[in-house]
Amino acid sequence: MLDGCGRTIDYLRLSVTDLCNYRCRYCMPEEGICKRSHSEILSVEELAEIAEAAVRCGVKKIRLTGGEPLVRRGILDICRRLRAIPGLEELCLTTNGSLLPKLASPLREAGVDRLNISLDTLRPDRFAAMTRLGRLSDVLDGIRAAEDAGFRNIKLDTVLIGGFNDDETGDFVALTREHPWEVRFIELMPMGPCASWDKSCFLPVDFILERNPTLQEIPASGVARRYRLPGAPGAVGLISPLSHDFCGGCRRVRVTADGKLKGCLHSREESSLRGLHGEALEEAIRQGILHKPRRHHLTERPSDTPRNMHQIGG
Ligand code: SAM
Ligand code: SF4
Counting CB atoms within 10 angstroms of each CB, which of 2, 207, 286, 288 has the fewest? Predict the structure, then answer.
């Protein structure tokens, strides 16, 4: 369906939990978060009902996210329920990868088509420092497990952070010479804990092109500009919410784990879908799409949303 600005909206990012087994410094407060009671989080039934209504409104692709979607109890059941929705063309999932050694095969069997795996550094000490609770080897094992389970077109999502991983861009780009992965560099967005970080942390992703001049442009996909090293099996994506305004090409809406529809990651506006069924649920989704904000204002001020990223789903 078209939104109020004439953009086609066919992509839903559906958060299944706001909990996580990591505490990435830019995403989560150090002390962690208060666990909500079960009743505050959408049940499997509610998630399936919302997904079905969204597909009836024209959504063709759903990405499960969080928090960490793989810590959600019943995640395989959720995947199976969503995969069975007629008209849904693609079911994807974004994960920190740490639980993939155990879950990659069951996820594949449950019908997940594609995985994005977040990985901000290839150095074990930096990884432990940034995630506070994570171990790099778990994620590397997770990527291997995903490949062994038959996942293809794996994307690695790397948030570019000045003073943290800006000296590793060559190492990440080099991965695409060895593997058919798309390594996507994403600009750090000023929200939650990182909103107050020094300006030097927020680098434009064009930095990757300066550092890796042999990259050659290839056709774009979604909001990512794409590049390839000559002859490499993998690709490099650049996602630039700050330095290149891509709002005009945005096709997505989001639903948070507590059932709020958000037209834009960075806006305050949200509408509750809980307790709505059938026609009323569809109408609420249509209204949310229709009123999707035209653009964010990150170039002028930090994100307007009072939520941290783990409470929306990046
Ligand atoms: N836990 C899963 C993961 O890490 O992939 C899924 C949820 S996480 C919120 C989704 C993505 O958002 C991750 O790739 C994460 O690095 C990214 N992210 C979180 N905070 C961000 C920020 N302030 N700016 C840019 N990306 C951010
Ligand atoms: Fe968890 Fe993902 Fe946020 Fe890191 S970025 S704390 S893995 S939700």
Answer: 2
